[in-house]
Amino acid sequence: MNTTDTTRWKKIAENITGFNTDIPRFVASKSTCRYDLIVFSDSSRRVYAAVAYLVCRPLNNKPFSNIIYAKTRIATPEKSTVPRLELQAIVLAAKMTRFLLKELTIRVHSIHWLSDSQIALYWIHSRKHLKTFVQNCVKLIHEVIDELATANINYNSTTEFLLAFRRFISRRGTPSNILSDNAPNFKLGREVLINELRQISEDKSLNMLWDIWHKEYLRTIAKRNQIRLAKRQSSSKQPQIGDIVLIEMDNTGRSQWPLGVAVELNKSSDGATRSVKVKTAKRRILDWSTNQLIPLEVAAAEESSTKINTPTPPTRVQLPRAAKKTILR
């Protein structure tokens, strides 16, 4: 503070009478009790602050509370609004709570943060994307909340788990199926499941339904599938040498399937054609299965032998010069 503010503050402090209080150094209770930490945060246009109270609730006596920590910060009014200062006060309360839980040697059963700013509370509970300053404050508050919520939870790293698993194998051998390292936990569940499965297996109505499903429904589906495959949109004609065929490709659309000419048939010992060597437009000869070839109703030999008769225009007859003169006269 400057000199003027210091002088004014000294006058205010000198005029205050009747406000004398002592804060005890020992704020806990010697008897068994429950401890709650309550943190208040508030702000004005120039200052924001937070104060923490430790509430002790004995089993046989009345509860009492003591102030254990307080902090204030001076704000810059030109750059901060009151809702932002309220949010900064909550951030100060969060940092204060984290510090107190590390320093206190007693077990705190519950923690309460109290603020009267509706806008700051809306920002904390909102899932929308906020401005950078507000978003950073809200992120820090949530980090402290998560840290406090998981303070008493122990996490095993991958290395610790592998070491524990190795000790388990060395004591009991390598199991074929790993369910848990504490098998008695599953004994009761095993007995319950066996009884339930036995009731299901002995149910006559379920067995009858399964027979209908297996003998009638599944066979009907298989038969319909065979009929659908037999009636697929393809030609049943076997390709012959010189036929133009459409090559079926799995990863491309039907409009992109290439054309080719059958140049050689590969037959098996029973005389059936199993594969065909096809010459493509790039003059490459590849071996294709007959299931991937769709013969068209056009043969390359017929195409080459087909002749198109186009009418020839009549020839112009040039008259002799003497005949032209006679016509002109």
Describe the overall structure.
There is one protein chain. With 329 residues, the protein is of the alpha+beta class. Among the domains are: 127 residues, Ubiquitin-like (UB roll), CATH 3.10.20; 62 residues, SH3 type barrels (Roll), CATH 2.30.30. The chain is built from nine helices and nine strands. A five-stranded antiparallel β-sheet has the order 8-7-6-5-9. Helix 2 runs parallel beside helix 4. The chain is elongated. The protein starts with a helix and ends with a helix. About 2% of the residues have low confidence. This is DUF5641 domain-containing protein. It holds the Pfam family DUF5641. InterPro entries: DUF5641 (IPR040676), Retrotrans_Pao (IPR008042), RNaseH_sf (IPR036397). One of its GO terms (molecular function) is nucleic acid binding.
